[in-house]
Amino acid sequence: MVTPGGARPKLSRELIVTKARAIADASGLDALTLRELAHALGTGQASLYRHIADRRELLGLLVDDVALEFPTADPGLAPRERLLKVWLDLHAFLSAHEWVAKVIAEGEYISRNAAPFAQRQLDSLTGAGLGTEDAMRAYRTLYNLLLGFLLNKHPMGHHLEAVPPSTEDEEFRWAVSRFLDCLLPGEPPQGQ
């Protein structure tokens, strides 16, 4: 990676994470090796070790980086609509970064940057009338539903003629909407 003047930009953790994310987005997580990353940065693999300990640390940094971009929804929306919007937006965001769901699902990396997202969801759920324990269970259910949709590419049942074809986005919208309908029965859906 060389700038127009011919000089390489100074290697930094931020630059390493940015390039690693670009590789993972373009080619998948399996393509993200430290050797490939060093090559893409125009440096030697040993130079990376001045900024990161290993691939494990790099993946943790990538999860932290992505979590900063988790969506927020308009607090002026009714709780059910706010929840629906943010989970649909998160599904769209993570669909654009396919490797993230796998890393999250493996459970090895806990991002401190994801905590504000989780807290906003818990606040929305308690604001909709759920108790703290039910809000936590609902949050975990929504998160597992999201990961299930992102990770499961098996077309089970889609070959049936009686089932009209739909996109993954439509299927996810349907699932989250129905879950919220059951969870928040006192709040009628708007525009559904």
UniProtKB/TrEMBL annotation:
PANTHER family given in the database record: HTH-TYPE TRANSCRIPTIONAL REGULATOR RUTR, TRANSCRIPTIONAL REGULATORY PROTEIN
Keywords, alphabetical:
DNA-binding, Transcription, Transcription regulation
Q: Which species does this protein come from?
A: Amycolatopsis samaneae
The record's annotation in InterPro entries points to:
Homeodomain-like_sf, HTH-type_TetR-like_transc_reg, HTH_TetR, Repressor_TetR_C, Tet_transcr_reg_TetR-rel_C_sf
Q: Taxonomic classification, please?
A: Bacteria, Bacillati, Actinomycetota, Actinomycetes, Pseudonocardiales
Q: What is this protein called?
A: TetR/AcrR family transcriptional regulator
Q: Which residues bind DNA?
A: 33-52
Q: Name one Pfam family in it.
A: TetR_C_1
Entry-linked SUPFAM superfamilies: Homeodomain-like (SSF46689), Tetracyclin repressor-like, C-terminal domain (SSF48498)
Limits of the HTH tetR-type domain: 10-70
